[in-house]
Amino acid sequence: MKWIVVAIVLFVIGYTLVNIYYRKPGRAFEPYADMNNRATTVRLLSAGWQKLPVDLSRPAEKPGLGLHASMTRGSAGIGTELAAAFAEKPVLLTSIDRVIAADRIARGSVYSIHFSASLGDQHLQLGRVEALLRGQEIVLVPSLEKLPGNNLLSRWKDADYLASLPTERLAPGRYTVRLTANGPAMQWSFEVR
Questions:
Q1: Do the Cβ atoms of 51 and 130 come closer than 8 Å?
Q2: How far apart are CA 117 and CA 129, in angstroms?
C-alpha cells in the first residue's frame, strides 16, 4: 500500500515540474475565441482594413482645456460591411454620450480619446476597443464582455473611458474617426502632422 502512495506522490511531483517547465507563457489557448479572432482578422484584411493597437483605461479623468475636434452623430451600429467581416458580432455599447478628442496631433505621439458611454446591461463591462484603419478612415469598435460570476454587476450604467491610439502607423493627413455603438455613433476628424 505504501508503494502505491509513494508512486502517486512521485507522479504528482513529476507532472507538476514538467508542467511548470514546459508551460506556454501567457494566456491559455481558447479554440473558439482564437478561431473567431483569426477568421475576423482574415476577413478584415481581405476587405482592406488594418488593426491598430489601442490601450483602454478606466476610470478616465476629464481632459483639460485645449483644441477639441467637433463631434457629429453618425449611423448606428458598425455598418453592414464591417458586420460581415466579424466572425462573431461584437456586443456594442448602448450609446456614446460624449467624446473629447484633439483636432490635431503630432505623428508619433499618442492620440487620446476620452468618451462617456452607457451600458444596456449591468452584467456587462467594456473589455476592449478595436481600431480599424482603411485609407483615411478609422473605426473604433468597443466590445462588451460579460462580468465573471452570476451575481456581479457594473456599478453604474454609464462610465468614462480613455482610449489611447499610437500614431506611428498613420501617415500625415486628415483622418475621419467613427466610434460605434448600438445607438448613433460619434464621428469627428483630426489631423496628423
A1: yes
A2: 13
Report, in angstroms and rounded to the nearest whole number, the Rg of the chain calculated over CA atoms: 22
- Give per-10-residue mean pLDDT for the chain (193 aa): 91 91 79 85 87 82 67 82 84 86 88 86 81 90 81 71 89 90 88 88
CA-based end-to-end distance of the chain: 77
User: What string of DSSP letters covers 118-131?
Assistant: E-S-TTEEEEEEEE
- Domains of the chain: which residue ranges? 50-192
pTM for the model stands at 0.77
**Three-state SS string across 64-104, please?**
CCCCECCCEEEEECCCHHHHHHCCCCCCCCCEEEEEEEECE
Q: Class assignment of domain 50-192?
A: mainly beta
Q: Report the SS3 class of residue 158.
A: strand
Query: DSSP secondary-structure letter at 102?
Result: B
